[in-house]
Amino acid sequence: xxxxxxxxxxxxxxxxxxxxxxxxxxxxxxxxxxxxxxxxxxxxxxxxxxxxxxxxxxxxxxxxxxxxxxxxxxxxxxxxxxxxxxxxxxxxxxxxxxxxxxxxxxxxxxxxxxxxxxxxxxxxxxxxxxxxxxxxxxxxxxxxxxxxxxxxxxxxxxxxxxxxxxxxxxxxxxxxxxxxxxxxxxxxxxxxxxxxxxxxxxxxxxxxxxxxxxxxxxxxxxxxxxxxxxxxxxxxxxxxxxxxxxxxxxxxxxxxxxxxxxxxxxxxxxxxxxxxxxxxxxxxxxxxxxxxxxxxxxxxxxxxxxxxxxxxxxxxxxxxxxxxxxxxxxxxxxxxxxxxxxxxxxxxxxxxxxxxxxxxxxxxxxxxxxxxxxxxxxxxxxxxxxxxxxxxxxxxxxxxxxxxxxxxxxxxxxxxxxxxxxxxxxxxxxxxxxxxxxxxxxxxxxxxxxxxxxxxxxxxxxxxxxxxxxxxxxxxxx
Length: 478
What we know:
The protein is α+β, with helices and mostly antiparallel strands. The chain has 15 helices and 15 strands. The protein has a nine-stranded antiparallel sheet, sandwiched between helices. Helix 8 packs antiparallel against helix 9. The termini are far apart. About 8% of the residues have low confidence.
């Protein structure tokens, strides 16, 4: 497993949520960041800015518990190769909390009721741990329902201009589930917005941008076609510093802005991110949000308003199914499909049918597996044929020993009636073989060894037959 994957597994195991450490009392550094972020809106602010800053002291006990959990996780053997880097990550967590701040800015004469600003500090890992604290985001909800999630991004290829693209399916929120019982605006649910911002780096999100660029030649979706015709909008969006320009990402694609429809509220959430350096990043990011929000309020409305489905999350819409090119696809309900099936059954030709009994008979007749006309042999005929093949095709009768002859108990040689001892091994007729001979006979397996025990050669047998017995008692013919 790669070290980057191990790093992700470790981070996910901690379930760290920076929103649990936000307090209303800001540090001097956090106050300066909020002042810089709200300065561009100074003439349009109509109320008090509500701001929050990260502080380890708010949940000090929870933070200590988090560190203990992390230390136990580090003891696992799988992290041994990157243990030092993971310890550096834990040291940076407190800094990440301190560098996090959020400001809810009430405004007038703008597309939103409130503009939300936040910092996006990140701890990244390649060969070592990096802490990045320059990224920021502006976002807000507009009183327009755009009907489809829309993203904006850039590609490393210099010949490919930045583009808007439709997002098909559900956002990769990393397992986050938005509670439908939330009574405050979705833009003020920090963890929900945080999950959307993290989804901009997802491979799924980036693939949607490439697919629309290459597969659909950058046109075909009504919303994106409308936005791509707005030159002022493209100019403002083009000023954004993305992960490509900041070199945070090693990918060739970066998504920096998104519009998410909120069906239950009939509104849309617009988010723009910026990863540049210096004070100009505040102006560039807010300008892009303002132009994107204004243009989204003017896009063509969907042909049918999407109705929220029970249990669905924001960003999921119900309505006509369309391709990324805008072509509407026909959809059938279960009743429509049932009616179509009945119509087709009524128009079927007169096809013969079989009863269950007929099918059973057919199955029995086919179960033998013997085609009609094929020659079949009986078992006796197969045995006879095997005997013929074993004898080389010659009809030679099998040799049967004389029933009056006995065998030598020692060597197995055939003995004529009346012989007193074996002419081969001189063993008396009727004597039991020795234990040693029994063992030797049992160990013999090779055919050559068995032939040696069957008797002497023809020449030796001839000599034995021609030899005259010494006495009359020994000669059985006398």
